[in-house]
Amino acid sequence: MNSTIINIKTDPKIKKEAKKITAEMGLTLSGAINGFLRQLIRSKTVLFTLNENAPSDYLLSSIKESEKEKEIGNFILLRAIKKQLSFLINSLCRLNTLKSSLKSLRNVRPKVKIAFKNKLKIFINNPHNPILNNHKLSGKLKKYRSININANWRAIFQEIIKEKSIYFVAIGTHSKLYS
After folding, report:
1. Phi and psi of 17, rounded to 5°?
2. Burial 59-94 (b: 16+ CB within 10 A, else e)
3. Can you tell me whether residue 67 is helix, strand or coil?
4. Max alpha carbon distance in the chain (Å)?
């Protein structure tokens, strides 16, 4: 493969932190930058923002509802992550049996349900696969993470490391989740 060198100037702290994060994801910094450049060419968009997205009322109410369900035990808690995600993948056709954390998928186009199912399969094998864009949220949402379902849909979830569990609190379009 032919390659060329691109020199950029950046703060050494940013480079150090970026290398650490990409290493945790199983990537090199060069690989991540190449992925960014390929995505830029493919989509003709730059997917980062200089300001923090504020959570929408919909997302805040979904989180609040999920927290209440968790407190009373009316929640599908994903203790055995791989086993439970396999259950979710197999249950996508029976969404009416799932709790409110996934109710937002009930009235979604089949293509989005299929994309969610496929992303969960990837998540099971490698939660930090670059295609998922698994990232920590900030501000009011700092204890939550997000993965991409497709170009416009996101799934918001919380990891509880000490319990080895995760749960999804909201699924929706980017514009529905953030104001």
Report:
1. -65, -40
2. bbebbebbeebbeeeebbbbeeeeebbeebeeebee
3. helix
4. 58
Query: How many CB atoms sit inside 10 A of residue 126's CB?
Result: 13
> How many CA atoms lie within 13 Å of 129's alpha carbon, on the beta-carbon side?
14
In tens, the pLDDT along 94-125 reads 333 335 556 666 777 888 888 888 888 888 77
Alpha-carbon distance of 18 to 2, in angstroms, equals 25
Two tokens, residue 173? 């379009």
Per-residue tokens: 155:
């799934």
- The residue with tokens 């509880």 is 160
β partners of residue 166: 78, 159
Residue 98 has which token pair?
């799932």
Domain boundaries, the chain: 12-43, 57-177
CATH class for the domain made up of 57-177? alpha beta
pTM for the full predicted model: 0.60
Angle at 15 between CA 124 and CA 44, to 5 degrees: 65
Q: What is the helix (H) or strand (E) element at residue 68, kind and residue range?
A: helix 57-72
